[in-house]
């Protein structure tokens, strides 16, 4: 019987493969208490680290760490973003304003949400980006992404006229994002193009605005763009309709034309590019109409400043900075606005002293406002003061450099009446009643406003002129009676 053959290799018993413990096995699932304890420990550690970093690490070190972390992550991005804020210090950023106008022509074609508005007396719809919206613009084959960013700043509780209200302010900016290889193109070509295009759009769509100061509490606590509130200026006055001496009108127009053409001259002689006018004369002589005619002639906005609304000299400076270039700043009835009488005149005995006004604007503050360092914060500005009593003003206000041109707005002259007759009645100097009217005007003092009121009473030229003649004859009679009584 053959012997049993022994295998060359003995089979070893197979070992059972060990698997790592399953953390999700029933016996390995941590209890809820363990999870909560671990989370609490982690949160406590994070708070300790945050507290230590806040209290012990210097601000410079924290800023250094944050900046380096930010640079590390940005190094993996090819995008560059420029931030264009609405204000640069106290003045408005012109690039922001240009972008706002320029993007108004691009918005609705590339956005689902945009803002449209049309003010009272306006004829065109204004389109602009809504808050926190994005749009894409293409320039020279390159895409640029614009994003409007609006964020609320800290609210302030303000008490105004006995009522408490929360004033909230907004900070606005644009973010312009693009590939970083186009940075030079943006700075050298794209942004200059936006500035140039916005200027062209403004000139095409410009309508004259009359600006007035906002509410006191809004102006003092919000500031910025809310300092002035605009409305469309639709005043029909022009130099052709003004009831003024023809030579005087020609002199004013020549002075205005010379002013707007002399930017380089003002810079060469070291003067701020501004011009001051004083319009003085009795009420109703056309001071406000002349201001409107100047604005229409130059296409300048008007800023109507009420000095009694200004509390301090600092407020006065902020108001000046907030006015735009190519504008007319008007201060009407300056002799009544503040105590700016002649400092060399002694108070008369027996004359009651007026109570102190709430405004603390001083004469020196006003002088610095119109002729000091702050007056150079802007270009191509005209400042117009009006008064019924020139003799009540301090001589310091009247000198050249502050009030360069003094214009006496007198009573209605024969040439002024000729203009009114053409405007109101469509008659010329050949009408038989015109010569009689001129003779009566030479004997009495009536304002253009009074003459115009008489001409408005009847649409028939003959009847209107007869009514005016009766009015003038009555005025002459009354003045003669006053003179007789004075002599007696």
Give an account of the 3D structure:
The protein is of the alpha/beta class and 488 residues long. It folds into three domains: 59-118 and 125-153 and 168-205, no CATH class; 230-341 and 358-405, P-loop containing nucleotide triphosphate hydrolases (Rossmann fold, 3-Layer(aba) Sandwich); 414-486, no CATH class. The chain is built from 17 helices and 17 strands. It has helices at residues 32-56, 59-74, 94-103, 107-110, 183-205, 216-221, 246-260, 263-269, 287-298, 313-322, 334-337, 363-371, 395-398, 414-425, 432-443, 448-455, 461-487; strands at residues 79-85, 87-88, 91-92, 114-117, 126-129, 134-139, 142-152, 156-160, 163-167, 170-179, 209-213, 228-232, 274-280, 301-304, 327-331, 381-387, 405-408. It has a seven-stranded mixed β-sheet. A four-stranded antiparallel β-sheet has the order 1-10-7-6, covered by helices on one side. The chain has a two-stranded antiparallel ribbon with strand order 2-3. Helix 15 (432-443) runs parallel beside helix 17 (461-487). The N and C termini lie far apart (180 Å). This is AAA+ ATPase domain-containing protein. It catalyses: ATP + H2O = ADP + phosphate + H(+). Residues 1-26 are annotated as: Disordered. Residues 273-413 form the AAA+ ATPase domain.
């Amino acid at each position: 019987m053959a012997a049993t053959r022994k295998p060359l290799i003995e089979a070893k018993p197979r070992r059972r493969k060990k698997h790592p413990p399953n953390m999700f096995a029933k016996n390995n699932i941590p209890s809820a208490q363990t999870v909560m304890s671990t989370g609490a420990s982690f949160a406590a550690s994070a708070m300790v680290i945050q507290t230590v970093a806040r209290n012990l690490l210097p601000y410079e070190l924290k800023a250094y760490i944050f900046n380096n972390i930010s640079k590390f992550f940005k190094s993996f991005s090819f995008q560059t973003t420029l931030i264009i804020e609405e204000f640069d210090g106290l003045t408005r950023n012109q690039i922001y304003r240009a972008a706002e106008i320029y993007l108004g022509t691009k918005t609705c074609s590339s956005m689902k949400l945009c803002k449209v508005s049309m003010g009272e007396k306006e004829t065109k719809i204004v389109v602009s980006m809504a808050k926190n919206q994005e749009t894409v613009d293409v320039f020279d084959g390159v895409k640029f992404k614009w994003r409007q960013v609006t964020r609320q700043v800290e609210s302030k509780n303000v008490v105004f006229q006995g009522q408490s209200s929360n004033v909230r302010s907004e900070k606005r900016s644009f973010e312009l994002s693009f590939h970083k290889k186009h940075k030079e193109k943006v700075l050298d070509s794209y942004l200059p193009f936006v500035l140039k295009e916005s200027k062209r759009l403004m000139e095409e769509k410009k309508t004259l605005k009359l600006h007035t100061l906002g509410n006191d509490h809004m102006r003092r606590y919000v500031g910025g763009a809310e300092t002035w509130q605009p409305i469309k200026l639709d005043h029909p006055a022009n130099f052709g309709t003004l009831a003024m001496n023809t030579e005087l009108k020609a002199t004013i127009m020549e002075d205005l034309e010379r002013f707007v053409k002399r930017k380089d001259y003002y810079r060469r002689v070291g003067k701020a590019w501004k011009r001051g006018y004083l319009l003085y004369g009795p009420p109703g002589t056309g001071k406000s109409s002349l201001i409107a005619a100047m604005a229409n002639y130059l296409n300048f906005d008007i800023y109507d400043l009420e000095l009694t609304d200004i509390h301090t000299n600092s407020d006065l400076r902020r108001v000046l900075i907030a006015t735009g270039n190519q504008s007319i700043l008007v201060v009407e009835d300056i002799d009544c606005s503040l105590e700016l009488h002649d400092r060399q005149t002694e108070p008369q005995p027996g004359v009651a002293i007026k109570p102190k006004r709430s405004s603390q604007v001083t004469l020196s503050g006003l002088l610095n406002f119109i002729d000091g360092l702050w007056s150079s914060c802007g270009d191509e500005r005209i400042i117009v003061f009006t008064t019924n009593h020139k003799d009540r003003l301090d001589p310091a206000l009247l000198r050249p450099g502050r009030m360069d041109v003094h214009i006496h707005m007198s009573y209605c002259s024969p040439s002024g009446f000729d203009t009114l007759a053409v405007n109101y009645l469509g008659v010329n100097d050949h009408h038989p009643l015109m010569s009689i009217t001129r003779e009566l005007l030479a004997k009495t003092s009536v304002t253009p406003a009074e003459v115009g009121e008489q001409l408005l009473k009847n649409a028939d030229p003959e009847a209107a002129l007869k009514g005016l003649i009766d009015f003038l004859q009555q005025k002459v009679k009354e003045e003669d009676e006053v003179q007789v009584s004075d002599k007696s």
